[in-house]
DNA sequence: CCGGTCACCTGAGTGC
DNA sequence: TGCACTCAGGTGACCG
């Protein structure tokens, strides 16, 4: 599901809709979604004021309480996690299917008084801890800078230091964070680079082109509120960037640049879409 | 260090 | 219709 543009959209939506609102209570319908002890999670967040929300790599960061001295909730949505607004589940039996955690919002309109975490596949996790521990959390998770947080020189250094194939290296969140299967394929196509190329053999010109294309694609995808392939949506509906995909999900169709048939193969364990002519792919 | 495979879960699509 | 099987925006553990 969510990669950088989708997570950014969700974080922006949460910030816009809920900054300054008090969270009166927290209910947990499926404890495994929450890291550690569910009671401790609830105790950390219930009664706090939601200060704002942002994105860290593919994580949604929600800040509570006083600036710098408050609590942060870090949410990783994995494949099917999403946030939406709905009725507060007064008892565990009142949770709607696939809703697992609820945050009761003070002063919200009827039927919208809860922020709900929904996750069909239940791969996602919510973590709550003091905000001062955020740097350590990021370090422990091995989260590298995203494509907007490094320059061409640093990007080149990071990619070429790895021995693996280019697609695998782009998906490595320690090297560069935020790209997932869709935007890795789209960026490689736009840059005319093969997913199976050795990352260590890339030239300055190639890594520079790749970074520029990745940034442009991510920026356009954020403007379109992300890509909805199956069931992703922000707080208010699906994204539209899937309409602009050039290769992802288009196997068997013609390359929009050269007319060659788009192929799909497994690279780095993931379905990988490419134009064999534009990207000079050798499988 | 690297690649491959499975695990975590559920649902949608396909082919028989 | 039903059933078996594959695949899916991600990562993390384990094995060779």
Describe the structure in your own words.
It is a single chain. This protein is α+β, with helices and mostly antiparallel strands. Helices cover 27% and strands 21% of the residues. It is built from seven helices and ten strands. The chain has a four-stranded antiparallel beta sheet, with helices on one face. A hairpin with a 2-residue loop joins strand 2 (50-56) and strand 3. Helix 4 (152-160) packs across helix 7. The longest helix has 20 residues, at 204-223. 42% of the residues are buried. The mean pLDDT is 96. It binds a DNA duplex (16 and 16 nucleotides) through helix 6.
Structure described in brief:
By secondary structure, the chain is α+β, with helices and mostly antiparallel strands. It has helices at 4-18, 38-45, 134-141, 152-160, 166-171, 181-191, 204-223, and strands at 23-28, 50-56, 59-64, 71-76, 81-86, 99-105, 114-119, 125-130, 263-267, 270-274.
Highlighted features:
283 residues, DNA-binding, alpha+beta
* N-to-C span: 26 Å
Oligomeric form? single chain
Counting helices, strands and paired strands, the structural category is alpha+beta
Taking the sheet with the most strands, its summary is: 4 strands, antiparallel
On the 0-100 scale, what is the average pLDDT?
A: 96
- For the CA atoms, what is the radius of gyration? 20 Å
Strands of the largest sheet, in order across it? 1-6-7-5
Element string (H = helix, E = strand): HEHEEEEEEEHHHHHEE
Number of helices: 7
Percentage beta strand: 15-25%
Shape: elongated
Q: How many beta-strand runs?
A: 10
Spans of at least 5 consecutive residues whose pLDDT stays below 50 are none
Helical coverage, percent range: 25-40%
